[in-house]
Here is the input.
Amino acid sequence: MQKIVCDTLIDALYVLPIAPENRAFKNFSVCLQRDRIEAIGPSHEVLAKYAPEQHLRFPDGILTPGLINAHGHAAMTLLRGAGEDMLLEPWLRQRIWPLESQLVNPEFVEAGVELAIAEMLGRGTTTFVDMYFFPEVAAQVASRSNMRTVLAFPIFDGTNSWARGVEECFRLGFALHDAVRGNPLVNVAFGPHAPYSVSRRTLERIRMYSDELDLPIHIHLHETAAEVAAAHEKEGRSWIAVLDEIGLLNPQLQAVHMTTVTPTEIERFAEAGAHVIHCPGSNMKLADGICPVTAMEAAGINVAIGTDGGASNNSLDVLHDGRLASLLAKIDASRADAGAARDSLRKITLGGARALGREEDLGSIEPGKLADLAVFTPASIASLPLYDPFAALLHNGSAWRAHSVWVGGVQSLTNGVPAHIDVDAMNARLKTQIGRVEAILQKS
Here is the structure.
């Protein structure tokens, strides 16, 4: 029988497809043709059927779907370590927002996003959701880096470094939507910062535009108990109730944080088909609280995982946040079987794809899906022994490194090095921007 020619064949010790079965398959191979997954199966069977132009073998590697970092502020990697050991409210008002008002411009965003992408690719991430100023710059950096992104363009009622009020936020956001139309790597979402930072009228407009354009809505929601208490004082009900009245509780909603919720609100979210983005590292570091993930999933809510920004997490390693999510789930539920490693990896892959409305294309290794993949190989002797590859990646991730990453069938990371980023040029940009930050910090 004549073999079928394909672009790339990847062999690995273990393949973790996530779906249709969320288990580990030993000595499996995945065949890539153009930007899609062509086949998956036992290595000897796939090789008997396909003749690859490129055959890559990872005899000690673990092959996974590309990881999805479902919430962050990529350019804020440049503020990593600039505001430590503070609660959310003073951290924002006394440290982050004053720094941003002096620093944020297109050059700052370019350097910060490029640094973030290099870091995320190095940990196996192929898609990230970003909510930050100058998203048109982030689109350019992601495109040239061959990294997939969803840009939730920021919407505030006040003035910021990107837009002079909410009208300009919409104008610039719609211009971005038009500019990236047809770009396979970049999608756009509405990014209202939070219910307390945009008016009800603005939220109603976002709901209307979301319905018209079929675009998701990405919003910080119920991040702290203090935020919820302030909502009850101002509105007489929670922000979730306010969004529900407007009609924003629907499958397009990506609600970030959700640490303070009632059982009734959990049930309502499940009924509405809204998604929750869990950011355990940031929530713990800012002492925000714990998202009740186990109860949410029991109710039928899809949960994805995000790192949040580098300023509030210090790391963009979504695998590490998956581990934190696993451990917090065990503590929150008082059950050792809660937060299983394979379930956390599903949140970082297929859960993220579902939240973004991309389940048909992303999140698992299945024929016909986009070829977004990551191969992890041992980084130290601590990778041995390897009995459970899910637990190895999640709970001992520092012993593993992302060796190779593909986005749409194109290799974006090779032997741990970004394939489409000029590292020297990136470092020059970083030096300039870090100098600007340091100059301000030294005066404060």
About this structure: The first strand starts at residue 4 and ends at 15. The chain has a mean pLDDT of 96.
